[in-house]
From TrEMBL, chains A, B:
This is DNA-binding transcriptional MerR regulator. Residues 1-71 form the HTH merR-type domain. Keywords: Activator, DNA-binding, Transcription, Transcription regulation. One of its GO terms (molecular function) is DNA binding. Transmembrane segments: none annotated.
Amino acid sequence: MGYQVKEVADLAGVSIRTLHHYDHIGLLKPSSFTEAGYRMYSDRDLERLQQILFFKELDFPLHQIKEILDDPKFDRKHALRMHRELLMKKKERLERIIETVDQTIQSMEGGIPMDKKKMFTSFSMKEIEEHQKKYSEEAKRRYGKERVEDVEKKTSRYSEEKWAAIMGRWKDIYERIAARMDRGPEDPEVQQTLEEYRQLITDNFYECTPEIFRGLGDLYVQDERFTRNIDRYGEGMARFLRDAMHVYCDRINR
Amino acid sequence: MGYQVKEVADLAGVSIRTLHHYDHIGLLKPSSFTEAGYRMYSDRDLERLQQILFFKELDFPLHQIKEILDDPKFDRKHALRMHRELLMKKKERLERIIETVDQTIQSMEGGIPMDKKKMFTSFSMKEIEEHQKKYSEEAKRRYGKERVEDVEKKTSRYSEEKWAAIMGRWKDIYERIAARMDRGPEDPEVQQTLEEYRQLITDNFYECTPEIFRGLGDLYVQDERFTRNIDRYGEGMARFLRDAMHVYCDRINR
DNA sequence: CCTTGACCCTGACGTTACGTCAGGGGTTAG
DNA sequence: CTAACCCCTGACGTAACGTCAGGGTCAAGG
């Protein structure tokens, strides 16, 4: 038992062509076909469609939606929470636009010209786009090359002492870098220390490729939680670290 | 004096290519060019761009935006008010989606499957699309075949007495119809009077085709300002008039 | 049994609103 | 006078479908 294309289309408020399209690109393949070749959608297919529409609402491109939904580590609940945030951003954006409309009406009634910058402030999509980038980056980072699961298994087995040793080296590395911030991100000693840092990660957690390493640097600046923690080693440390990591990765790739 | 492409792009948060595109399709042509062929945008161009972005926010296709903005009778203030409404609808839609997200999270936590219909209710774009259709239809109706300008030229030249005469007949027609509302919209006398009505419009304002006449009827119900005015001839008169006009037009087209 | 109307299918080309080069010039600060 | 940025015009590419064309399926009714 299941639903035919038209039923699904009507239920979800999309066109039949859209469903065909999603089938074609492998985003939503019906779980069964009748003998005559009719598409039959199951309840689980409907759920997936709902997910797709959620992400679409946030202007994710379809190929990215596919990646996200196909990922075995995809956590629906976590994803939904992130969605909620993004939706709220969108709502806020709309609210700002409405406000701009109101102001425009007022300025028209008063015959007063509007401030040029203010005219457009509401339209900015930057915030939303950045959020979205963060989201997909987080996903990539979370899964990296190895699965997070594996990493967690690996780490949970470490003994207390080993942990203490690792954290000690970690702290050491951070302190050494912090002490040399005034030398700039390209300072050879800083770069040398970063090599050590990457090795530490690779040895104890997961193979830290340059790409991942670079992403890690970005994360330190983009995610406040990291920024706050790192900046305790020194004002602006997170940014400096990111810059230095970029330099490091650039050099490797040549 | 004016703004270069990049300045405008940054100000409005769109790409340079977008501005080129708008120039190409005639949606937003810069009001001047430097000798070297650089686009220079004026303040008025910026205002137009703002309008464009407003409409874009409501998912109007660019060609329709062009039509609307290029129309000499385009009333910014009225347009903005309609915008506001549409934006509110969008916002409400987002709020519904957020609610659905919340419910989905809840149902996930409880392990209870969700209602299939409820799953999708929030995504429906129908309301917004209908609103949009109404909007562009109203525009078409307001301007009909001839431009309102022409109509106004035509009408403004009428002498006072002629006006009085027309309005007298108008009132007469409305009163006769109001008196026969209990007979239903198909009443021959009502239909006869409608013939007279259409002729009155054609003779004095513009060629009132059946399509326009039908649209006029719709307008009477959809636009409260008309509804209020017409209902002064009798409770429910506007609706009755629309129904009768529909019957009239249906008969003509056979 | 056969037709009719409401479904379904698969190509395949069209469309919208830009993105993204390629190739080449303009302008200004050091 | 030469970077470092700005600008231009084609022209092809892309995403997410819309819109035929041509043809099969299926349940209800005459």
